[in-house]
Design a protein that fits this description.
The protein contains 13 helices and 17 strands. It is of the alpha/beta class. The strands form 3 sheets. A 9-stranded mixed beta sheet has the order 2-3-1-4-5-6-9-10-11, sandwiched between helices. The protein has a 6-stranded mixed beta sheet with strand order 12-13-17-14-15-16. Strand 5, helix 7 and strand 6 form a beta-alpha-beta unit. The protein starts with a helix and ends with a helix.
Length: 380
């Protein structure tokens, strides 16, 4: 990001200048930004070269650095931190904005989630010509896009609803009826999707069906792919080619890759907030020889780990669980109350080594994941 930091000090309007003449897709949300941006880049690549971040640096300096490195490239797929979306949208005037999901994340930095919803709604209202690709299964995302004149609704799924039990517009309860939801106190309900998942297929307008074969695991990533495809099509990509391209994404900055650590084949997963943790835990192979959960509490992670009590850890039977990371003891207390048998090994590499030989799942939060990758590179 250093180039972007210096450029912004020299000229505060540099992002506006770098955005001119481009057709840009911005991708934001609490979870799935990096994955969806990579999938959107792959889908847009069927039209030509695409400017994007290689490392997920999603604030102003990282965005400026990415655009500076791709001068003259007409297409761009840019990941944006949700707090930065309004002013980045003003600067880049994107062709499309992808809204993935919105849930609690680092309250010490982000603040209350309903406040973020209102800010994003007001920011998008300034850009009526921008196509908004919105997840209609997420109540808060739907509220952001509900009044926008140019929306493509995608039923991308939502495994987490704890932050949207009440209507963001009226404060009254949200009533769920199967997949459908509605507010009991306002004219506000789940829109009919333009794109949705049906078994192994992605279904679009006029009930076009496309087999969706992904290299990445989990239902959440199928939803991410659906929104990436919808964004690429909004910019003119061929639907079948865009769907196929999303299946070429195999890892994102080390996430989902499997590395050999002695006698262990360790698959690395990242989670950063309660909704993300719940989704990542659903990807754990129950036949794994071990599960290492590594938690730090540094500033990028959020220093308050009370969110651990919002994550459901109670469903691990028959898997050897190891609590690890700088805050291993905090995690160990949570696992004890969840009734999960576990050991505590603060060093993640040693935690992996403590598991039986074979496939080991490693689930880590932000700095624990970063530090583990650094240690793995040092060993290789």
């Amino acid at each position: 990001m250093i180039g972007g930091l210096i450029a912004l000090q020299i000229d505060k309007t540099i992002m506006d200048q770098l955005g001119r003449g481009r057709r840009t897709v911005l991708v934001t949300g609490t979870n799935g930004k990096s994955t969806t941006t990579r999938m959107t880049t792959a889908a847009l690549s069927t039209l030509g070269e695409v400017a994007t971040q290689a490392d997920g640096a999603n604030m102003d300096a990282g965005i400026v650095a990415a655009l500076s490195a791709h001068r003259g490239v007409e297409l761009a797929a840019i990941e944006v931190d949700e707090l930065h979306l309004p002013h980045v949208t003003d600067a880049l005037n994107p062709a499309a904005v992808v809204l993935l999901n919105l849930s609690r994340d680092q309250l010490d930095r982000v603040g209350e989630i309903n406040m973020i919803e209102r800010k994003l709604r007001a920011g998008l209202a300034r850009h009526p010509d921008t196509v908004v690709i919105a997840n209609c299964d997420d109540v808060l995302v739907t509220s952001i896009a509900y009044d926008h004149p140019n929306v493509v609704w995608v039923a991308a799924g939502s495994g987490w609803s704890m932050d949207a039990t009440s209507c963001p517009r009226s404060g009254e309860p949200i009533l769920w009826e199967g997949e459908h939801w509605r507010s009991t106190g306002a004219d506000f309900e789940r829109p009919e999707p333009d794109w949705w998942l049906d078994g192994d297929d992605l279904v679009g307008p006029d009930k076009q069906r496309f087999p969706l074969k992904l290299a990445l695991p989990g239902r959440a990533n199928r939803g991410n792919a659906a929104q990436a495809v919808a964004a690429a099509i909004a910019l003119g990509a061929d639907p079948a080619a865009a769907v196929t391209a999303t299946g070429t994404v195999r890892e994102i900055a080390g996430r989902y890759r499997t590395v050999q650590v002695g006698e262990h084949a360790a698959r690395l997963l990242l989670a950063k907030n309660p909704a993300g943790w719940q989704e990542a835990l659903s990807m754990i192979e129950p036949s794994s020889a071990g599960l290492v959960i590594a938690v730090n509490g540094q500033v990028p992670d959020g220093e308050d780990l009370s969110w651990l009590w919002d994550v459901r850890f109670e469903h691990f039977e028959g898997v050897q669980v190891v609590a690890s990371g700088e805050r291993a003891t905090d995690l160990a207390v949570r696992l004890t109350y969840a009734g999960v048998e576990h050991t505590t090994v603060p060093n993640p590499l040693r935690a992996i080594a403590s598991c039986p030989a074979g496939h080991v799942e490693v689930l880590a939060n932000y700095t624990a994941f970063r530090d583990l990758n650094r240690d793995l590179e040092a060993k290789s």
